[in-house]
Amino acid sequence: MDIMRITFDTHEIIVPILPGDVSEKIWSALQNGTYEAKEAFWVKRAVRPGDRILELGTGLGIIASVMAATDDVRILAFDANPEVVALARRVIDTNGFDNVTISHGLLMAGEPREVPFYVRKDFWMSSTFADQGPYEHVITIRSVEIDEIIAAAGITILVMDIEGGEYELLRGAQLPGVERVFLELHDHLYGLDGVMQIIAAMAANGFAFDPRGSSGACALFSRDLTPRAFDEAFALAIA
């Protein structure tokens, strides 16, 4: 069987994943090129050369691979599902990136605590929410305090897709030194009221919603509040 290759813009990523490694739905998304395609488009524009990146919910490591191609970046990537972590390591190693460290873990705001994590067939639906849908099994993970990791690693951008976990995290974390936060919102879990609370918490922490780096549920927040000139080339590219 040929090794799958996915191209985001001009960057090709080798994806050594077999049909039995993932659910039929995820396999189909990988084959037709829709797997995290929108996220890849926008995160590539959020990351800057020299960034120190913290990624939560790395999944198959494809978004980490997209970011890793940027000059002089280093990435700490975490996922709460140990089976997915193994697949992500395979993807990163196959693509030869030595600037990505992938670990099994659950980063949250506040003191470390034991947290149930519900593993689902479609791993992108796995989360800390029991009522999100049927799950295959549940594991217990001791959380790690996110601000300590951020401070120790000098993180400049936080990237996350954590199936609703952003609601609690962003209302409790201080994110010291972080310049940008790129995430996928999950309004189906906490409603527009939850989105409003996230935006309010980010504003209170010095972050503004950045419409130029956002599209639909993919949202970018920035602490750089200086005025910017109109970018006609970018406007035409996304039109």
Molecular structure report:
By secondary structure, the protein is an alpha/beta fold. It has a domain at 48-176: FAD/NAD(P)-binding domain (3-Layer(bba) Sandwich), CATH 3.50.50. 33% of the residues lie in helices and 24% in strands. The strands form 4 sheets. The protein has a 7-stranded mixed sheet, with helices on both faces.
For the record, the CATH class of the domain at 48-176 is: Alpha Beta
H-E string? EEHHEHEHEEEEEHEHEHEEH
- Given the helix and strand composition, which structural class is it? alpha/beta
Low-confidence stretches: none
- The percentage helix is 25-40%
With strands numbered from the N-terminus, the spatial order across the biggest sheet is 5-4-3-10-11-13-12
The largest pleated sheet is described as: 7 strands, mixed
- Looking at the structure, the CATH topology of the domain at 48-176 is FAD/NAD(P)-binding domain
Q: How many H/I helical runs?
A: 8
Based on Cα principal axes, name the global outline: globular
Separation of the first and last Cα atoms: 38 Å
Summarize model confidence as the mean pLDDT: 93
Number of strands: 13
Strand content: 15-25%
Rounded Rg: 17 Å
CATH architecture of the domain at 48-176: 3-Layer(bba) Sandwich
